[in-house]
Amino acid sequence: MDQKNQINNDFDYLLILDFEATCEKNVKLECQEIIEFPVVVLDVKNQQILDVFFHHYIKPSVNPKLTAFCTELTGIKQEQVDNGISLQEALAQLTLFLEQNKLIGSSFTFITCGDFDLGNCLRREALYKKIEIPQYLKNYINIKKVFPKQYYPKQKKEGDNRLPDMVGMLQGLNLKLDGHHHSGIDDSKNIAKIALTLLQKGFKFNKNMRAFSNY
Ligand code: AMP
Ligand code: MG
Ligand code: MG
């Protein structure tokens, strides 16, 4: 292993998280609720996505019935959320997962694709339901914001200043989209591949790249 790599990276582990939430086409729900909660672990020093990952379906309480649109988009079935756990329980399980895998005590950061997951969705639902959020989920790196311009997909037109989305980042790195786009676990694994490929190209994820959720 390259020693320089060890010294220059601020994090031992990158925890890639991509929530799926209740939704309806062209409707803003009063409380959008998390229904899929996956976390994929990337070992920075060994440049490896770990086989062990965190994954739970969550039972929504405000809108317990999934819309056909939501099931179509995410591939998540009613039965999976009916058998799911509560958000509060999932948060407790995540802390246990991080302890059992010796992640708590190491240096890690969460990585998301956009600000929706940890900047918006979890924060709003936690406020609505008065759920306490662990401190470690209150900051994250939005990979879209730090993704190097040199790897932007070629199709992007000159003067298009939008940040690349997951599909664009995969294309720009010549990676294929595995699984079902908008499945939380498949999205997390695809985002993890993007992060891993950047590491392999010498990219460093730094503490100063983090955004903080103010709540
Ligand atoms: P994503 O991580 O891109 O799969 O999206 C996360 C969540 O955002 C989904 O579970 C939906 O609740 C919502 N969402 C994503 N795309 C759409 C869309 N086209 N229309 C409505 N909601 C969406
Ligand atoms: Mg997402
Ligand atoms: Mg997703």
Automatic annotation (TrEMBL):
SUPFAM superfamilies: Ribonuclease H-like
GO function terms (MF aspect): 3'-5'-RNA exonuclease activity; nucleic acid binding
InterPro entries recorded: 3-5_Exoribonuclease, ERI-1_3'hExo-like, Ribonucl_H, RNaseH-like_sf, RNaseH_sf
Keywords (A to Z) from UniProt: Exonuclease, Hydrolase, Nuclease
Pfam family, one: RNase_T
Domain Exonuclease stretches: 13-204
Gene3D superfamilies listed in its UniProt record: Ribonuclease H-like superfamily/Ribonuclease H
SMART domains for the chain: EXOIII (SM00479)
Domain of life, source organism: Eukaryota
Listed name of the protein: ERI1 exoribonuclease
